[in-house]
Amino acid sequence: MFKGLKRVLIGRPLKNEALHGEKFGILWGLPILSSDAISSVAYAGQEILIVLLPAIGMLAFKQLTFISAAIIMLLGILTLSYRQTIDSYPNGGGAFIVAKENIGETAGIIAGSALSIGYILTVAVSIASGVDQVVSAFKVLEPYRVYLCLLIILLMTIGNLRGIKESAAMFSLPTYFFILSILIMLCVGVFKIMNGYKPNPIHITKDTLQPLTLFLILTAFTNGCAALTGVEAVSNAVPNFKEPSAKNAKTVLVLLSTLVLIVFGGTSIIANFYPTDPKNGAMLVQIAGMVFGVNTPFYFIITALSFVILVLAANTAYFGFPNLISVMAKEGYVPRQLSMRGDRLSYSNGILVLSAISALLIAVFKANVTSLIGLYAIGVFISFTLSQSGMFLKWVKGKSQSWMVKATINGFGAFVTLTIVVVIAITKFKQGTWIVVIVIPILIFLMNKVKKHYVAVSKQLRIKPEELPEIGIESDVYKNRVIVPIESINKTSIRALRYAKTISDDVIAFSVQIDEESAEKLRQRFGMLNTQIPLIIKYSPFRKVVEPLLRFIESTEYDYHRGDMITVILPQFSVKSWWHNVLHNQTRLFLERELLKHKHIVISVMPLQLKDDDYVLSQPKYKDR
């Protein structure tokens, strides 16, 4: 049933050769990887006004234009930098690889950790923000806020597990519709202004006004930098583009930045002519109401698409995170399973991990956007800073052609993004940035432990070419001694004993009993087998199973010689339904776990597949039982 449901939801497995067809070009890559940056436009300007409007009143809209221009300049620097990153590191990994190779291993882990946190919070914040807009419009849904978020995560997980091509087709069109609707709104808005339209002024309470300070501008600037989140996703997802992948990725990056320039810059400028108060709702929705009129089709379209684009912003993370984490897995910093592609050739394990952690955050913070957003941008800008710094060092050390120009761009970018990290850390410390400060060192510790384990395993398993003749297969032949643990005499134990005789002449049946009555009953039934295999029974007053077996192997009674191999054959029946397993003890699992700790013991399972209950009971000899 589970396999059938999986096929319906996810689809049939794809062959490795189908991977080329799963990669996307510019048309589909642009909306998939730009949805986060484009969605940030929906609230970046609003976040700037939230800081400035209560402090300086209507002057906030003029400052909004200047601050937006500064953010767009930073976007230009990041675009140039990440184009260079794509050229230098076309296999993906973005900030993680750049920082690791040019600054050091720890810097790479910090960048990878920070960016991973950013992706996880992108999913949590985007979906919580989208649901928040729906709940604001339909108050009856308030008690189901968290459940709605979890449902959306489930749907996006299924969509992305279906593979890159299908998820791109499902999630791309709404992004294009949103961009088109905003462009139409900007054009109509400008047309109305040119024809003498004058909006109603908004009123700001004068006793709240404050002087315009550098700290206030920096706070507003860092709030607006939310428009830059998602830019790095393109450099992480280069391997997902069709060939020439690097060229297509750079094209998408330029188009993405151009769209942010037009949409974010355009809305920031037009807000001077259509002033809005963030207290009354989303800035884009309010501008749409003034441009098209409330209760008009276009007003409702932009309102609906604003919700959709906020939710779909999470989809950028569903492409960026699995690709980033797969690169880190190949480097040995996270479990290797995260580098494996699933049935539909997507990094399914990474998708599931992203969904699980994001769902947990939403449940813990009860889908509260204010609580989550404090953690949001700092992770991304830490990775920006390390990426810029890494590229700066690369140019300085390599001194390639035009290295001074490139180093200047990256050096200035590193300085600006580091400044933003500091300001975010200070201004949003109480909102939760302190959590990121704690989490990143923990992730660094865990990743180093994982790396240390993989290195240790590799060293212990590695065989040098010159050692091969000395340890050839024919040089040492193990003497195989077999032990068959049995609880009773039944079909499974008899099959295991029969098999044991085919692989060795040294076979022992071993049983652990908790009382003499059970032991005597086993002896009598075993004697009916007329076999030369000896039966060893040990009494276990504390009802232990593994310890008596290990004590017997190490005792003089067994006469084990160093260098011998002991094969333990475990009889095991396999039931038809998954829930039947709950009805039977899992002694075999405990035995396997403990015996595998001993290098001279081999574990072998002798299975017996049982038939379905209904089939067995329908047979004539069972009908009267």
Report on this model:
- With 625 residues, this protein is mostly helical.
- 64% of the residues lie in helices and 6% in strands.
- The chain contains 23 helices and five strands.
- It has a five-stranded parallel β-sheet with strand order 3-2-1-4-5, with helices on both faces.
- Helix 4 (59-88) packs antiparallel against helix 11 and helix 8 (164-194) crosses helix 13.
- The longest helix is centred in the middle third of the chain and has 34 residues, at 297-330.
- It is elongated.
- The relative contact order is 0.12.
- The model has no long low-confidence stretch (mean pLDDT 82).
Question: Mean pLDDT, nearest integer?
Answer: 82
Radius of gyration using CA atoms only: 32 Å
Shape: elongated
For the largest sheet, list the strands in their spatial order: 3-2-1-4-5
Largest sheet composition: 5 strands, parallel
Estimated structural class: mainly alpha
**Span of the ends, CA to CA:** 30 Å
Q: Count of DSSP E strands? A: 5
Q: What is the H/E string?
A: HHHHHHHHHHHHHHHHHHEHEHEHEHEH
